[in-house]
TrEMBL record:
InterPro entries (UniProt xref): DUF8175 (IPR058488)
Keyword Transmembrane set for record: yes
Disordered: region residues: 212-232
TM region(s), chain numbering: 29-49
UniProtKB keywords: Membrane, Plasmid, Transmembrane, Transmembrane helix
Pfam families given in the database record: DUF8175 (PF26526)
Domain DUF8175: 66-205
Protein name: DUF8175 domain-containing protein
Biased composition (Basic and acidic residues): 213-222
Amino acid sequence: MKAKTDYSKVGPGIDGAAAPGRKTGPRRWLWPVAGLAVLAVLIIVVAVACGGSDSGDSGSKTEAIKTAHGPSALVDGVPRGYTHDKAGALTAAVNFIQAISQAGVGRLDAAALREHAVGENPSPSLQSALGASSDRVEHDDTTFNSVPLVATVTNFTPEAATVSVWGESISQMRTGGPDSPLGVSTLYSTTTVTLAWEGGDWKATDWAFEPGPKPEDARFPEDGPLSQPGGQGLYVFYRD
């Protein structure tokens, strides 16, 4: 008959002796060492995922990032790498509108925007918008932010998508000379971006802009973008 275990004797031994039945030796260091190894691997993975890199082939500065539907990288400050679905197209359109806004105040190179985010055959209206944002000089006391409020994919195929973005633009700048007060103005507008799936990414090919509607406008065309369900969440990624 097997003897019963006396649990009253389980525990640390006297004067540092081991408890009955417990093996001594280097095995007790296994878990701390394994924990340190896992921590080191995690640190390396995070550093690789978040760190920037310079592409030696094109001279472009690429920063790797990770979001649900893109972008997956910033190349020369331009978001790139979107998922091949409606959410990816919607995110690409919102980011492109913000990118043009940043180029318009000199915070982003319009030539880089054209190279990384515009399709092979841009429409005249898109070329005009890009031209208006070229060669701008950044001013420390000028701010312009484009905030998406409702973004809607009005047409979608695997090869092309049309996205309507109703949003608010907020600008802050001097009202006169260098010593004049700062003024703030707002504008509600609707921007429509057409995109094509080229080179494994969504690229802008057409652009349309019109003011309004304002929030207090209770009526809008029944067949307009705001009469359709908008995308969920904020599809904003622009950052310094």
